[in-house]
Here is the input.
Amino acid sequence: GAVVSQHPSWVICKSGTSVKIECRSLDFQATTMFWYRQFPKQSLMLMATSNEGSKATYEQGVEKDKFLINHASLTLSTLTVTSAHPEDSSFYICSARHRTSGIQYFGAGTRLSVL
Amino acid sequence: QQQVKQSPQSLIVQKGGIPIINCAYENTAFDYFPWYQQFPGKGPALLIAIRPDVSEKKEGRFTISFNKSAKQFSLHIMDSQPGDSATYFCAAGNSGNTPLVFGKGTRLSVIA
Here is the structure.
């Protein structure tokens, strides 16, 4: 089946530093990738939608300068949390939409802890 | 109109029971209805999906029932096992690059 690799799975950083999360579709091309944030025992909250080669579309309330998204190719998207603060601590999950089937596959998630 | 309402919020069944999770949507443009299973600390995994041209789809112990006129769909898990204990999310979407709309999730516990 289609695999989405997300790295790192867990990161701890100091307040004020930046963290980059990488999302790769390993065996398929993704027309669109999505980034979600999930709080404990809650549903997935869509942060942004990105299409290869174009600027990401951010959901209302998500700071685009805080959460930088780069979609460099049909298999790679990155999310950079800039100047991270403790309130940014969360579980971040990426998702890739299969170019042919349209099915959305998810990465394993990244747990970010900002001290 | 973009919401997907999911119930119940949590569910406890005994091993071998048949938990049923229900979802309802408003947007008639939706034409794709997947279910995802998520274990703690992991990303959601696609379980099964259905399109409006059929009323039921079965894959192993998992069955989706779809009622187009009522704009509702449900997940049934046959012969449930403790390993099925997870959070289940229904979602709805349509053709194009628009993101899926997710329900709030159902935490299922299957007790031996």
